[in-house]
Amino acid sequence: MVRRAYLLVFIIVVISGCIEKQEKANLSIAMEPDIRANDTAIRVAIASVVSPKESYIYYEEMIRYISKKLGGPVRIVQRRSYQEVNDLIKNREIDFAFVCSGAYIDGNSEFGMKLLVAPKVYGRTTYNSYIIVPKNSSYRSFSDLRGKRFAFSDPLSNSGMFYPAYRLSLMNETPESFFGSDEKGRSNYFYTYSHDSSIIAVSELLADGAAVDSLVYEYMKETKPEVISKTRIVEVSPPFGIPPVVVSKDVDPYLEERLKDIFLNMDKDEEGRKILSRVMIDRFVNINDNAYNSIREMRRQTG
């Protein structure tokens, strides 16, 4: 009950537009002003695909495993937005990162962000965007959400922003024209900065609809069934290249190879398999950059 209340407070604060104080409270885990000062530890950044506390729990065991294999400390750095994580990679403040597919194509184009590996989940290296609505609502399609309150996850999210924006462009609409504003002139769409917060916003009727990552939705089916049971999927996107693990184009080649080897072999020992099983990943695999071309094309068409 306490956890649920915490998340509801976070979502309500985001909706009201007053996120500054809440952001500071939520992101006290490794928000260092100078994260490289006098510290030679390997740094990994985690974009908040799920909310900051959940992200930390989700990745903590995996990072501990990688640290053990490397024989040295690996520190987790969290940031609220995908752009902030991209900036860390661009400025060489971190060594590798878990990012979303949309952030990858932007970072690859802007400063040469490189693919390291990708997870295989449910036997696939693809995922989808789900358009979801409250279970007991009358909405049956994305078009039914005209003029309603809608939750996007992050401006650089493929499943949480690029895809729904692309769908709107096919209807000759933009988020502004389609969702409109309320009687006080406030936009009817907002950003939650994590997919689980978007899902909870819909489940608690704080939003009439949302675009969310299928991987997070399916994960929450297992871990938060009481939340998912209050929602319903009205649209599933085509498959897209799955959110990858990335490195800077200037990463140390030896470290890059060590990290890749650890990820690719994680499913081959008992400890690694247990960790992967808990986060519902089959294994990590190599992935080709062209897996993300369909996202690039959507991005091009929507500007």
State the gist of this model:
The chain is built from 13 helices and 13 strands.
Question: What does this protein look like?
Answer:
With 303 residues, the chain is α/β, with parallel strands linked by helices. The chain folds into two domains: 27-125 and 243-302, D-Maltodextrin-Binding Protein, domain 2, CATH 3.40.190.10; 127-240, D-Maltodextrin-Binding Protein, domain 2, CATH 3.40.190.10. Helices cover 44% and strands 18% of the residues. The chain has 13 helices and 13 strands. It has helices spanning 2-16, 20-26, 52-70, 82-90, 101-111, 158-170, 175-179, 195-203, 214-223, 225-228, 253-264, 270-278, 293-302; strands at 42-47, 74-79, 96-98, 114-120, 126-127, 129-134, 150-152, 189-191, 209-213, 231-236, 240-241, 245-247, 283-285. The chain has a six-stranded mixed β-sheet. Helix 3 (52-70) links the parallel strand 1 (42-47) and strand 2 (74-79). The longest helix is centred in the first third of the chain and has 19 residues, at 52-70. It is globular. It starts with a helix and ends with a helix.
